[in-house]
Amino acid sequence: MEERGAGRAGDRMQFRHSGQGNGRRRRVLTEPLLAGGTPPRGTTPRGAAGGAVRRLGPNYGDAAFLEHIHRLTDLIPTGGLAWAAAFAAGGTLLGAVAALDWWVTLWAVGTLGGPLAAFSLDHGGGLARWLSSALLLLGAAVSTIVYLVRQHRVDDYQGRYRIWLWAALFAVAWSAGQTAALGEDFARVMTHVTGTALAADGAAWSLLPAAFLVMGLGTRLVADVWYCRSAVALLAAAGLALAAAAAARMGWFSVETYLSPTALASLAALGGHLGFLLAAGRYARYVILDAKGLLPRRTAGDQEAAPRTSLPTDCGDNDVLVHPPHRVPRPLGRSAGVGDEEEPEWGEDDAPEASAPASQPTERAAPTTTANAQTVGRTLTRAEKKALRKRLEKMRKQREGRS
């Protein structure tokens, strides 16, 4: 016994100190195969097939990290704190651009004899134009995410999700126009070709097509995001800001004390582009939550009292209520024909008298048309009411004859 115990202790010591770390690694690699699973992608467990571990590439091994990289939908924030920070950052951005234009212009005019073009809202290649272009590109990216999610909705038979692809393309084109001044060049060319400047030194030639496209896309986007009220409000605010920018560019109003018409138009356009980005982001959050089934549903009691469709209070707060199809009731007085799946339903008061024994006469109150109307679930027609009265009169006479 002592020798056997000493042998077991020696085996344990040999297992601990014999350097079998490679054997443990082989067992770890072969555990998924023994459990009925599959090995990691692109690898062959050492010892399972007698070969070495196979890699996908020489620099990244089996590239298992690719399965844990964030998806596009993970870039859309869903928490309230993140969206509060986004709104605060947007307001701070607008205020900072206006403050820099005012302060740097005053300092540069008094010190350098002229404003700095980089921080001036009047300059076409300044910081405001670059920020507008960046916001439009971000809006195009978020619109693409909305398109990729919305195209999988099962009840969009008209294909309304395609408007987001058009919105993304228009945002990219507008971003290019902000950076390369395509609108100004188009206005100059049209003024030279037609010989007339229309208004605002030819700026109307670029503002009219842009206004037509913005109104067309905006109405379609509002119709699609109608059940997300915060997105609707942001789109409306963006439209008002762009309308103010166009009016200032046309010279219809200005605030000369603080900003010139060109600076006011640049700042209002920047606010409109920011509103479009936030609206697209809010609706992207809505469709992602809807696709994951995280939108709160109505209870069974609320479904009976609620109408067929209801508007939600905000993104993700409610959902559209759709009742299942109901069976059409069979009209009274119609005999069962071929193809009828069930017998006519008899109420409690108008059941056939054959079901009761003849020796026990029953005294039942005659049913009214209102009760039968409630049983059927709709208002009885004149012919059905007439047939019902005849049947009730016949049943009354039969009861009087038996009594």
Proportion of residues in extended strands: under 5%
Classification by helices and strands: mainly alpha
Distance between the termini: 105 Å
> What's the helix-strand series?
HHHHHHHHHHHH
- Proportion of helical residues: 55-70%
Q: How many strands in all? A: 0
Please summarize the sheet with the most strands.
Answer: none
Low-pLDDT runs of 5+ residues are 12-19, 33-37, 40-51, 300-313, 334-369
Q: Helix count, per DSSP?
A: 12
Q: Shape, please?
A: extended
Overall mean confidence score, pLDDT: 74
Q: Taking Cα atoms only, what radius of gyration do you get, to the nearest Å?
A: 38 Å
Task: Describe this structure as you would to a colleague.
The structure is a single chain. This protein has about 400 residues and is an all-alpha fold. The chain has twelve helices and no strands. Helix 4 (about 125-150) runs antiparallel to helix 5 (about 160-180). The N and C termini lie far apart (about 105 Å).
In short:
57% of the residues lie in helices and 0% in strands.
Provide keyphrases for this structure.
mainly alpha; 12 helices
Detail the topology: elements first, then pairings:
Layout: H1 2-17, H2 21-34, H3 80-111, H4 127-150, H5 162-180, H6 182-194, H7 204-224, H8 229-250, H9 261-292, H10 300-305, H11 369-376, H12 382-402
Helix pairs in contact: 3-9, 4-5, 4-9, 6-7, 7-8, 8-9
